[in-house]
C-alpha cells in the first residue's frame, strides 16, 4: 500500500481496549469450546470448519478447494490435503463440475451431513457472546 493510501490508525482509547479485550476473550473461549465439541466426536476443528464451509455458501451445497482455502485462510495445497483426509474419513466427496470439467466441487456425504448438523447444533448455543451472528434471524 502506498503512503498516500494508508490511513493513520487512531490510537485506541480505554473503551476500545476494553472492547478488544472482551472480543478476544470471547473468541478464545469459543475456540476452546469448539475444539472440545469437535474432538468429542473424533474430528478436528479444521475438519469441522471445512464441513461448515462446504455448506456455508449461499444458494448451493458445495464449495471448491479454492473457496475453502479462502474461508479457512489456508494454502490451497494444505486445504486439498484436508479435503483428502475428510474424504478418507467418509465426510466429503469430490465431484467434477458438469459445466467446467476443470473445476472440482467438494460435497458432504450423508455421514458428513449428519456430523455437521450435530456439531453445528452444539456450537450454535455457544455463539451467544457473538449476538450479531444470528441477529437477522431473531424474531
TrEMBL record:
Stored Pfam families: MarR_2 (PF12802)
Superkingdom classification of source: Bacteria
GO molecular function: DNA-binding transcription factor activity
Signal peptide: none
Start and end residues of each HTH marR-type domain: 16-139
GO biological process: response to stress
UniProt xrefs under PROSITE patterns: HTH_MARR_2 (PS50995)
Record-linked PANTHER family: MARR-FAMILY TRANSCRIPTIONAL REGULATOR, TRANSCRIPTIONAL REGULATOR, MARR FAMILY
Designated name of the protein: MarR family transcriptional regulator
Organism: Caballeronia novacaledonica
